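Consider the following assembly input.
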Amino acid sequence: MSNGIDGDVILRVDDLKKHFTPHQGFLQSFGKVRKVVRAVDGISFEIRRGEIFGLIGESGSGKTTTGKLVMKLIDATSGRILFNGRDVTSIGHEETKEYRRQVQMIFQDPYASMNPRFKIRDVLEEPLEIHRITADRKERETRIVRALTEVKLTPPEDFMGRFPHMLSGGQRQRVATARTLILNPAMLVADEPVSMIDLSTRAEILHMMKDVQRDLGLTYLYITHDLSTARYFTDRIAVMYLGRIVEMGKADDIIDHPAHPYTRALIEAVPEPATGKVDVVKELPISGEIPSPSNIPAGCRFHTRCPYMKPECKEEAEPELMDLGSGHYHACRRWKEIG
Amino acid sequence: MSETVLQVKNLKLYYHTSKGAVKALDDVSFDLKAGETLGLVGESGCGKTTMGTGLLRMPTPPGRFEGGQILVEGRDILPLPEKEIRKDFRWEKVSMVFQGAMNCLTPVYTIGKQMMETLQEHRSMEKAEAQELIKEYLSYVGLPADVTSRYPHELSGGMKQRVVIATALFLKPRLVILDEPTTALDVIVQAQIINLLKKLKKTFDLSFIFITHDLALEAEVSDRICVMYAGKIAELGTNEQVYGGKGPAHPYTERLLAATPRLRRKVESLSFIPGTPPDLIAPPSGCRFHPRCPRVYERCRMEEPPVREIEPGHLAACWRCFE
Ligand SMILES: Nc1ncnc2c1ncn2[C@@H]1O[C@H](COP(=O)(O)OP(=O)(O)OP(=O)(O)O)[C@@H](O)[C@H]1O
Ligand SMILES: Nc1ncnc2c1ncn2[C@@H]1O[C@H](COP(=O)(O)OP(=O)(O)OP(=O)(O)O)[C@@H](O)[C@H]1O
Ligand code: SF4
Ligand SMILES: [Mg+2]
Ligand SMILES: [Mg+2]
């Protein structure tokens, strides 16, 4: 198991930005100003080989955009992405294809990501074809069997002839995972949407993903809204707010000793399956909802919702991530006073 | 002791499909007191939404009632003519916030227009008076009055959900059914909405049926919890009986709880329930949970366990719980 501190860096992201400029449209022609959406606004982090790194934050905080940048599905506005020490920010088409074989995306929606007319065998064979891995039938068969075994769909022969609708949600997710594993990736990016998926099914999927990660020494970038799951599943967490990382560190440190008021508010809001809460109105340290990324508050971007806001939070430059030691970073200038 | 608002007795509601009858509610009984919140939990497809639409007496086609009673303030509504249901029952006494409703607001109308339509369908009142009422209800749910002139896409998810809740309260119902009202929202917004619901419940002396698949959330809102499995009640108990130190009684509830991640406690491994919920056209013999149950023995496969009181106010349908 990785401890999240040692080990070499597989992915490094350096002051990465993605600003969307809306197309000149109907409203603009009436003289309204075009507003740039600063979806990702200068983030830096490192993921070590064999580590599970979680990206968490509210809707609109820029998690998916970060995932897409890492997958190179969209181009960065500025900043760099280094994979195994190599700058992959502006590589060519062929190299991008090879990069995407090594860094695979897992779609967390088992219901939408599979062609219903394909048998499971075909679902798994498709990526081999796309990447022209091998034409040898036996070799392909071996890989398919191995991938199905890896995600515990056994005996594999039973599953290869089935269609997606003949599988449960959890089994479909296993197939989706097998489909990525078949290309021997080094790293997986999983973006979990707010979903209606049952907790038991989700637990089953996470369990399987963790086993696979241990067996194959894979690295994960795991994107989620859900802190409870992140605590269970990840080694380290980065908390995003409006396109920036406001706190980052070992999952246990972040949850047991959050430094940033935003992280504290997130933790406060998570429900716990324990008794004695029905008649309690929860004290929420922050009010309102996340502002628009096309109108990011000046200074500390959290100041409009922060219970500890002081004039300097608004007036002075945005704080950078500060190290508390032991790899726990946060971006709140008042952390000492609010203890 | 407060009065009973709702009594459901041996209710059966089946969907008649070409493959056979989907027994989505199969002999379900419970009751609800004034001012009480009853949580309805269970995996996808266990019949939660069916219960909601059933209680409004508007089952989705091809759903049909196959027996039982729904008593609202002591009166069985199943035999009543539709006209009467509309006049003094549906939305008037029992209303519902539908699963995903906040994403079903009509995009081309302003919030004010949509709320106005709902109101005028049920009440004859002057436009000005209706507008006042709309503003009043918007303020109850913490929204500014100028929301009326905005379109759904101009509102955040949390604001849309507040609009939907305000609309459900308009006609002063006694009971509001909330079907996954926060599933699509962030935790902070979810907590805000839950606080709002608690406040509204006091202000209007409401009863709630709170539907979710999340046992952790249910713990924060529901006085009593009804755990459903495959169209039946598996366990029904007070918040304390389900979440308290002793732990729940039914193996299904136990497993569901073990699959619920906890933020404040580090667990090495999350457990899950192997297998999937059964086909409701031909459910398993005996106890419907037996193919997935860790405590199964012969009797479970042969005989269906009845719902029985295992301690005062605590019901369960499991042979092991009766030992
Ligand atoms: N192609 C685009 N053009 C303009 N704005 C965009 C585009 N893609 C994303 N955005 C905006 O960037 C912000 C960040 O979006 P992103 O999808 O990364 O958030 P997220 O953290 O993944 O949210 P969620 O939890 O809802 O999935 C949002 O405000 C979104 O509307
Ligand atoms: N209109 C319909 N026609 C046929 N079957 C239906 C219909 N509506 C629901 N069902 C079936 O009835 C059962 C109960 O469905 P219901 O929607 O009540 O479940 P639920 O508990 O609300 O699930 P979820 O958590 O996914 O919302 C399921 O097996 C479902 O497939
Ligand atoms: S009756 Fe038997 S199979 Fe059903 S829950 Fe109890 S022990 Fe398990
Ligand atoms: Mg996203
Ligand atoms: Mg439902």
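Chain B touches chain A through 57 residues (CB under 8 Å). Ask yourself how this observation constrains the way the partners meet.
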